[in-house]
Amino acid sequence: MPFLRALISAARMVRHTSDLGAGLLDDDxxxxxxxxxxxxxxxxxxxxxxxxxxxxxxxxxxxxxxxENRDRYATRLATFAHSREEWLSDWLAxxxxxxxxxxxxxxxxVRRAWESPARAERxxxxxxxxEAAADAAxxxxxxxxxxxxxxxxxxxxxxxxxxxxxxxxxRSSHHYGCHVSALQYLSAxxxxxxxxxxxxxxQAAEDALPGxxxxxxxxxxAFAHLLSGxxxxxxxxxxxxxxxxxxxxxxxxxxxxxxxxxxPWPAEVRNLLAYVLVTRGRWADALEQFRLIGPxxxxxxxAFLSDDVLGEFLELRDMARIEVxxxxxxxxxxxxxxxxxxxxxxx
Length: 347
Description:
By secondary structure, this protein is mainly α. The chain folds into 2 domains: 8-34 and 193-326, no CATH class; 35-185, Alpha Horseshoe (Serine Threonine Protein Phosphatase 5, Tetratricopeptide repeat), CATH 1.25.40. It is built from 18 helices and 2 strands.
């Protein structure tokens, strides 16, 4: 019987896997960390040594209070400057007090300090750079998000962290990046616990505006929980009921449904959600998220699982399709057969 079941399962996979590929892009059409239409040309100009478009883009986000975009763009520009620091140095030389250049400098400096074996010491040294970025743009919450990341690495006390948190949310009460930084601080990996992490995430999601990515915080808490222990999806100690993890996923599914398929804005949330759903064995839900992701694979969360980030994404996408196919009937039921109840009676 086990052999027979295996044959039937294999037949189901062969029959249905190709059908379930509808809506999924081919592997070579999926790209990793694709910049949006505003950032793309800016990065191209930066590659030629031109900092002007970056200055214009970040100035527009600052003047328009586009704090979420500002955070994303500053982070990506700091990533670029990590390997091309002369580009940022030229920008700062031309405009030493530019709040946008100072923001990218602060982000880059904190990132480099995090990578150092002497992390805490290096982080303390870059504190003045964060203060300079905050002073240069008093309304901007992004320097305070950087400050929250900085505080986590310098073993800041809860009270010191709460002071920074108050400064951040005082500028933008629903800023996603600041909430993610606070969630990391409260995680079991750092200075909190799985329960504190979930409690914070669920309350923030409940208070969030409609369509806000803050509603995805519980699924980020679920990810931290699932990845705890030995670095796999099998934690040594389970302290959060599976129902709570599933509820976090359900909330993120509802959030994802508010955006169109192939929208780059919620791409990271959808990638994260797909992973959590796969881990929970919710294959059909995971496959739907892979469809909605379209071409926008993101490094997070797949970089936590493999050095081959895009390969990991594609492998789990294929796994979801195979698992869904293997659970489908070998032969589609006709309209009459679907109406037959047990005992041969019709509905």
